[in-house]
User: What shape does this take?
Amino acid sequence: MQSLPTPCPADRIPDATGLDAFTTTYSAAKEQRAVFVAIERQGPGWTVKADALTAPQRTLDSPVYGAVRDAVSHLIGSRQIRPDSFADPVYVVLYDVDGEGRARELAAAVHAAFSGDLEPLSRAAPCTS
Assistant: This one.
């Protein structure tokens, strides 16, 4: 599997629906020491996953983590994702995203955040507070 560019364009975010696809995508990220990012179809919605355990050098530092956490809170508060979605410095999961395109947009934004680029996240999940 070819390495993802950073930031990764939404159309290049892998679909890891199914155990084989997930395992292949996660293993490739681990081998490349890159942040794992993918979307998965789960029932009627989509799930966004990003995991820096595959790239320990890419955890979210405090200011970036705060921005990601605020964006996730905004998405939960505006009912764009399920309330059990969360972000921590190494793992972000967004449940029940409405539509593949939106899931790809959010995944690309989260992936960029792991490299310190918050601009895609501020466009994808503008906080109004």
